[in-house]
């Protein structure tokens, strides 16, 4: 009997202990739930926008390559420096052609000789004109016409005047040739585009000078399934892979003839985007054509002194950040790239007290 009482007592004790443990766990769990409920922070996460996706790269938009041309002569004078930015039509360098200069010198000698002959013949004309007047005054002209023994001053005057006209015509032709060649003695090479100059003094088998436009251009390819979805002036968002910066732009050209892959199994249609900001040549980009607008709830925004702010969640702290956005209905439409996909911003940020200073 005593033994039975002991067993019953132990059983009651165990049941009581289990009840105490369950009760303690319930109270702790309820406390944790209530604590989480009290400390819960509501936030809005920036999601990726829709639109057609492509990969591309920043390429040279315009380029002028200049090889040295020996037919123009020898390199004479360079007017720009390596790395200098130049505008279109700026003088870059000049050639000097010694062979043409020798031809010009020879023509100058001919011109001097012709001028000398013309001057002498004109002097003869003047003298004959004086003699003719004297002969007429003394009535010698009739006797000269009768005898035909000597040529009259008047006849000689006409012949020499004709000769002077021929010499003058030859002179004018020679001057014209000289002036035409003179323009080729020194030839000026000008910039056909605006851009940065690169001068090559090492390997003259390659271009001596290059001008690369600083206007950025993005190159990408679309498959046969996507090309018809693209239109000129379509808005494009370009995310630079190396730094996640986003730059807006628009499509300016779509090729109609595809480029075949090396194995000949697929074709890609090239298209080009002009970005609103400069992107370093060679940088890779992720493209979204006609991206959807990123809408931020009005409840996430703080308006102060005409500016718009949000509070970015960064670990346990929240950073106040200015953004560019326009109010549309009950949302703000983001207009810059200050926020990126995955960023979290507080809802009702004015109630938050853990702000990073």
From TrEMBL:
Source organism superkingdom: Bacteria
Record flagged with keyword Membrane: yes
GO cellular component, one term: cell envelope
Residue ranges constituting the YknX-like barrel-sandwich hybrid domain according to the UniProt record: 64-207
Gene3D superfamilies, per database record: 2.40.420.20
Keywords from the named record: Coiled coil, Membrane, Transmembrane, Transmembrane helix
Bilayer-spanning residue ranges: 6-27
Cross-referenced InterPro entries: BSH_YknX-like, UPF0194_transport
One Pfam family from the record: BSH_YknX
Coiled coil: 97-138
Localisation: Cell envelope
Protein name per its UniProtKB record: CclF
Source species of the chain: Clostridium sartagoforme AAU1
Classification lineage: Bacteria, Bacillati, Bacillota, Clostridia, Eubacteriales
């Amino acid at each position: 009997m005593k033994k039975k009482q002991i067993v019953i007592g132990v059983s009651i004790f165990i049941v009581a202990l289990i009840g105490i443990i369950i009760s303690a766990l319930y109270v702790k769990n309820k406390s944790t739930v209530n604590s989480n409920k009290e400390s819960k922070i509501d936030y809005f996460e920036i999601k990726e926008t829709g639109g057609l996706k492509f990969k591309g790269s920043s390429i040279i938009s315009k380029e002028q390559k200049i090889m040295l041309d020996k037919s123009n002569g020898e390199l004479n004078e360079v007017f720009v420096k390596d790395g200098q930015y130049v505008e279109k039509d700026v003088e870059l360098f000049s050639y000097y052609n010694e062979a043409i200069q020798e031809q010009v010198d020879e023509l100058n000698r001919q011109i001097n000789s012709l001028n000398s002959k013309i001057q002498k013949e004109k002097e003869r004309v003047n003298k004959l004109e004086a003699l003719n007047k004297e002969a007429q005054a003394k009535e010698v002209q009739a006797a000269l016409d009768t005898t035909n023994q000597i040529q009259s001053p008047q006849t000689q005057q006409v012949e020499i005047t004709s000769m002077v006209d021929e010499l003058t015509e030859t002179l004018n032709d020679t001057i014209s040739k000289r002036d035409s060649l003179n323009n080729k003695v020194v030839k000026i090479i000008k910039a056909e585009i605006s851009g940065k100059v690169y001068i090559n003094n090492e390997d003259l088998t390659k271009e001596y000078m290059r001008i690369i436009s600083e206007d950025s251009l993005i190159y990408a390819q679309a498959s046969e399934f996507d090309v018809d979805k693209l239109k000129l002036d379509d808005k494009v968002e370009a995310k630079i892979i190396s730094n996640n910066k986003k730059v807006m732009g628009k499509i300016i050209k779509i090729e109609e003839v595809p480029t075949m892959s090396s194995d000949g199994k697929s074709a890609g249609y090239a298209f080009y985007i002009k970005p609103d900001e400069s992107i370093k040549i060679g940088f890779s980009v992720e493209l979204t054509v006609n991206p959807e607008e990123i809408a931020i709830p009005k409840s996430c925004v703080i308006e102060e002194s005409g500016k718009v702010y949000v509070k970015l969640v960064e670990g346990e702290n929240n950073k106040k950040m200015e953004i560019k956005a326009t109010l549309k209905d009950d949302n703000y439409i983001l207009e810059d790239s200050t926020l990126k996909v995955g960023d979290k911003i507080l809802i009702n940020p004015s109630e938050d007290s853990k702000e990073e200073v």
